[in-house]
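Example with several molecule types.
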Amino acid sequence: MSYAYLFKYIIIGDTGVGKSCLLLQFTDKRFQPVHDLTIGVEFGARMITIDGKQIKLQIWDTAGQESFRSITRSYYRGAAGALLVYDITRRDTFNHLTTWLEDARQHSNSNMVIMLIGNKSDLESRREVKKEEGEAFAREHGLIFMETSAKTAANVEEAFINTAKEIYEKIQEGVFDINNEANGIKIGPQHSPSNPALGGGGGAGGSQPGGGCC
Amino acid sequence: MEGIVFPEEREVIRIKVKKCEGLMQPEYRKFAVDPQITSYEVLRHTLRRAFHLQSDFTISYLSHDSEGQEVWLSLLSDWDLDAAFISSSHPYLRLRVDARPFEDGPMPNNMKVKLKRRFSLMPKSKPSIVEFTGHKALDDWDIISSKDTPEPVPHPVVPNAPNNRQKPSTQPLRRSLFSSVQTTLTRMTQVLSFNDTKEEEDEKPMKPALSDTEFHSFLDEAGRLIRPEDLRLRIYHGGVDPALRKVVWRHLLNVYPAGMGGKERMDYMKRKANEYLKLKAKFLAQDTEEAQFVKNMVKKDVLRTDRTLDFFAVPDEHPNITALSNILTTFALTHPDVSYCQGMSDFASPLLVTMRDEAQAYVCFCALMNRIKPNFMLDGEAMTHKFQHLTELMHCVAPEFTEYLYKQQAEDLFFCYRWMLLELKREFAYYDALRMLEVMWSSLPPSPPQKDLELIDNVAIMANLSIPRYPYNEADRRQKGRRSSSSSNQSISPKSREHRVPNRKSRRRTSSNSDKEDGNHNSMVDGRGSRLPSKDAEPKPTNRTTQQITHGGSSSTHNNGKSALVPNGPKAAIPNGELPSPARSPMVFKKQLNGLSMSSLPPPDKFGYGNPFMLFLCLTILLQHQDIIMREQMDYNDIAMHFDKHVRKHNVNKVLNKARTLFAEYLKAQLQKSASSNGSGPNQC
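Resulting structure tokens for the full complex:
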């Protein structure tokens, strides 16, 4: 299928926070409580529309465990967006965010848009991390933030789409060099490479970044 | 029967059998069996021989219902037999055999004449199975062992081969394959490549699986495995009858030291199982932060391991899940150098499902981990080599496809990561995967433990006592590794490594030569553009390990961001932010690899880090999808997603057949090379 842009995403975060479930909810619109634990990197894709433009999201879902860092790191570089996920019912997964962020910043291109996600918002009764804490962390580090539930699908679409809007806006602002595929952005076949980023002129897509914003 | 049952291992089950056949006088027999090697099929066979049964018959066993009433239950499967052994064999198991010459029920009562006629046709073979003494004291009973099994089976190995090519006399065939390339290859190739044309027929089912009768032909009168290489060869071509896996897998996995008789093996397993139970009790009781970390980690993962399989499709607290968790946790805490890594549960699951016993599965797991542990080391070295070798193999067999992958910047083959890490366990439906695994295991040379299989790495434990590897959590650990990069890791390593290296070498003949060639390692990988296939480049799980684990644990200190997995390998350019442009190094790389022939690939003891056949399985799957990938112009992501969709869906027979054919070609080429160069191995490039 033709698309105006292709954005590459990477999903990162501790093991068991629900990365694969978020991806599945987004690509297949279903929740699978029992699924295989991710080995290395798995892949998903979906088409979305921003500002009337077809955008293909290519998503790399990484394994959370340390032993896979060597392979998952190699996927950072080619990503335009990252979903950094923690589990609101497990404080330790929140505590590790700094490390993840360092890792991501170190191995990715500097313009990568990072969305912080507090997942499992349906488990309110077991919450260990307040929403405000997530917001504060995002503010401090210049991330977008949302709480989601892969189980109920709450905010899942929004998380992926708002990240895309942010990237789209950066393209229009000329921040991304879209001719360099290493940035995780590819111009679709319907676009002329010599005339990039002149999509809607408006940038309506990026105007609502969801939660807090950079 | 609730959940998994872990019977205490008993060496001998005594059995009393009553045979009923129509109006004939019942007959009685007594004998004893080794529950470890007695499958349902073996029992049937034994009974058939004992009573000279020629017609069909049913077996039932005497059990007690909930009110203590005696009740005869049908014995129809290995499951029933296990249940019978466990629940109803004190002081002996009472069986009833109902001969059923015709289809009308177990107790026909008007068949006397016909039956007599049948009996008269019976061969007068002497009852060879056991002493069917009938009236002797129990103490005189014998244990069934190999000598007791039926008529000698014509040698089963590769029946399609010309007779003179694969006589059973080629004994150490496989053993020497990896240790002494030249001599072995000669024989190996003869055997493995005999019928490559036939195996071109993808759809052709495999040869029949190894049956219990056949298996016993590989044992001597004391139950000792006398032709381990032939046994492997046989399984390589046909797999193992599922009912026999429990017994045969322990041989394939190198659980037993060489030369053990049946009784010794039973004692050994019993001893090992006890050893495990003690270790488990001790280590699971630990309440250190590290132990807690491991427990949590394992718990999370066993809940995500093969849960669609009946055995694990049970509530989270079910004993089957707990058993898997216990195995992994005990292993992690008794082997702090590898500890627990995701993916291990995929290896442990088939062992538990097959052994149906936590302790035995643990012993098997330790044996398996001896070989695949490098896959899980943070240094990533084993995986690096596997990727390099697969790339070379692709160049050699499918240059056009490889070129396509280059164009798509997919030549790193990282979408094969799960295949290689888990040795393709997840790529096939569960029971197909068991078949694939046993075939793959049997492609490896026997490598029995020198003395006892070790269930705990004491040296690593000593070395780790004061340095918790998991200070608080994974991320802290990562950070710690980063801050004090080498010191934190080195403090784990030196002693334990030095000790473990010879240890590992003794178990893995495959790495026996590796030290010498240490210095040549880097000749293979020298940046993206100058990678040269080199005969000298091979796995060396030894000296560099210490250095590399540091690298792996703290690679984020490297500003260039080179992946620990592929320190200088193909993908190194990606972390550097330099996606290869078509004009860049790949062309150089390709030039050097083009024209690569099978003979210039690393020898079998090095190829695939000691598991060359696994590479051919990967290659086969890639080739099977080559057309669709190229036709549909799939890019990197499409390819990866395409293969993700095929998880557990590949056709095991097709893949195995094709992989065997390709593997045979490779061995043949290696043979020619070693013959022509007298082992010095010229490098084409």
